[in-house]
Write a structure and sequence with these properties.
This protein has 93 residues and is mostly beta strands. Helix content is 0%, strand content 62%. The protein is built from no helices and 9 strands. Strands 1, 2, 3, 4, 5, 6, 7, 8 and 9 form a 9-stranded mixed β-sheet that branches.
Length: 93
């Protein structure tokens, strides 16, 4: 099964990383959903929630204040001005 490798970092701290089946975020061009095999993307991200469907465990929501969203070769890198994992992410790394 193909999967995404996701990493979220804020300007001053690491937020989350791990394998995922899907990532959703709000970019300057609108909502974007990323699945394995997605074409490369580099986008400006607006403030709001990022939703991650990890390979194992429950859905993770991170709140961001804006930043950049990059996808290349099933790797998703989110660099946010500020980011925080919601309470539903208990037990994630």
């Amino acid at each position: 099964m193909a999967e995404l490798e996701v990493e979220i970092v804020a300007a001053d701290h690491f937020v989350w990383s791990g394998p995922a089946k899907m990532v959703q975020a709000r970019t300057a061009d609108g909502e974007i959903g990323i699945l394995p095999g997605h074409t490369p993307v580099l986008a400006i991200m607006y403030a709001g929630d990022i939703v991650i469907e990890p390979v194992s465990g429950s859905r993770i929501t991170a709140t961001v204040d804006g930043g950049f969203f990059s996808v290349d070769s099933d790797r998703v890198v989110i660099v946010a001005d500020n980011a925080q994992i919601g309470e539903s992410a208990a037990g994630t790394r």
